Amino acid sequence: MSLRGKVAVVTGSTSGIGLGVARAFAAEGADIVINGFGKAEDIERERAALVADFGVKALYSGADLSTGAGVRQLVADAEAGFGRVDILVNNAGIQFVADIVDFPEDRWDAIIAINLSSAFHGIKAAAPGMKARGWGRIINIASAHGLVASGQKSAYVAAKHGLVGLTKVAGIELANTGVTCNAICPGWVLTPLVEKQLHDRAGKNGTSFAQEQEALVAEKQPMKQFTSPAQIGALAVFLCSDGAATITGAPLSIDGGWVAQ
Ligand code: NAD
């Protein structure tokens, strides 16, 4: 168990990729801070499952990461519960699809706040403690859309490109402190965020959910298959291992060949 004794905060881990990453860290022995929204009983079930399945400690913080104060609250909750933060995964994210000329200003602001600014505030709050202890891992969950663009996703593409840029700057600034900062750039992962998009497309196109699912991966990815949250978790665990000690400032694709084209 390579992460026994470490404390990992995973933002947006009540669902999807964040939950997969939290479970992968717990399987390696890390204590976990879960964050995000959802039904209280579902969150408690996931929290209890981490404890029961892997014998680690797990606490939940419902901090809303759309403001700097909310992000600082999350780090404070982790420090109050476990004394420190060793691993920070900036994963919480939202999405909205519309042409720029029709894009609602409040959706733009919310996407930039949650998908980009929350990572800035998280690094600001958690990196000093990591530096002082001489070890830390910061992992930003960006996207293939952090490296290439698609239409109708202006705020998301801008936020994810920004997150890749922030990752590079943090990697440089934290070099030689024992703290690394990297970005994981997934292609399609079947999570509630993507399921909603598929239902919307099926409704608009008069197709089935299964047809839209097949069309989605075929459209962009040479490997016409989804990546799983567990596979994202495995890459995150690798980034916390000794083998990854000199990887920093790097956007790492896990996208079935999407951005290779
Ligand atoms: P999801 O909708 O399943 O999960 C998002 C999580 O973020 C949830 O736990 C939600 O409660 C939380 N969240 C949303 N707003 C929040 C806020 N204000 N404060 C705190 N938590 C908040 O989505 P997902 O597909 O698992 O996506 C996770 C991350 O991965 C996102 O950053 C997304 O952009 C990125 N990503 C997803 C895919 C994909 O295909 N699913 C691909 C590339 C990148």
TrEMBL record:
Recorded hits in PROSITE patterns, A to Z, give:
ADH_SHORT
The main enzyme category here is: oxidoreductase
Superkingdom of this protein's organism: Bacteria
User: What GO MF annotations does this protein's record show?
Assistant: 3-hydroxybutyrate dehydrogenase activity
Q: Answer yes or no on keyword Membrane.
A: no
Q: Which Pfam families match?
A: adh_short_C2
Question: What EC number(s) would the UniProt record show?
Answer: 1.1.1.30
This protein's UniProt keywords: Oxidoreductase
Query: Sorted alphabetically, which SUPFAM superfamilies does this protein's record hold?
Result: NAD(P)-binding Rossmann-fold domains
**GO biological process annotation, one example:** monocarboxylic acid metabolic process
What the entry lists under NCBIfam families is as follows: PHB_DH (TIGR01963), PRK12429.1 (NF009093)
What family is this protein classified in? Belongs to the short-chain dehydrogenases/reductases (SDR) family.
Protein name per its UniProtKB record: 3-hydroxybutyrate dehydrogenase
Provide the taxonomic classification.
Answer: Bacteria, Pseudomonadati, Pseudomonadota, Alphaproteobacteria, Acetobacterales
